Amino acid sequence: MKHMMKALGIFIFFVILPAAYSASQDVTIEINYGGIQQNRETKTTWKPGITALESLQSVAKVETRKIGDYLLVVSIDGVEGKRGEMAWYYDLNGKHATSVASKYVLQEGDHLKWIYTKDVCSPKAAGESCK
Fold it and tell me: Which residues belong to the signal peptide in this entry (predicted)?
């Protein structure tokens, strides 16, 4: 009985605890292609200092464009935004993001949802740029 308890303790320490610890260190990335192609959801490993943009780049083909001080996502997996019509935006943990993806540093367990939707930020769409 004593050996069985010791074996169980070793199993929990080396198998169960590491699995539970590493499971919480993921970031979930959901991509909604606006009906152009099938939506998908995947997980990637969270690392200290990783940004929303870097995590997206780890799971998808991403094109960006520098506008002023900002690096904006203009295409994901070949689905490209059209200024004044459609654009890529992201939600973070169910809320609209308040920072560009290249500047937002993720926390472990974050859930990003990238959405290809009506462009409401470009000057052509909104009459002024988003703030």
Answer: 1-22
| CA 90/CA 96 separation, integer angstroms | 7
Q: Is the pTM of this model over 0.85?
A: no
Dump pLDDT digits (tens) for 61-74: 999 998 888 888 99
Burial class (CB within 10 angstroms; exposed 0-12, middle 13-18, buried 19+) of 15: exposed
Q: What is the CATH number of the domain that holds 78?
A: 2.170.130.30
Q: What is the pLDDT of residues 10-24, one digit of tens each?
A: 655 555 545 555 445
Question: Is 78 among the domain residues?
Answer: yes
Instruction: Note whether residue 12 is domain-resident.
Output: no
Mean of per-residue pLDDT scores for the chain: 82
88: Cβ contacts below 8 Å, ≥ 6 apart:
73, 74, 75, 76, 81, 114, 115, 116
Q: How many domains does the chain have?
A: 1
Rounded distance between C-alpha atoms, residue 71 and residue 126, angstroms: 19
- Residues of the chain by 3-state class (helix, strand, coil), percent to 5: 25, 35, 40
Domain-embedded: residue 99 = yes
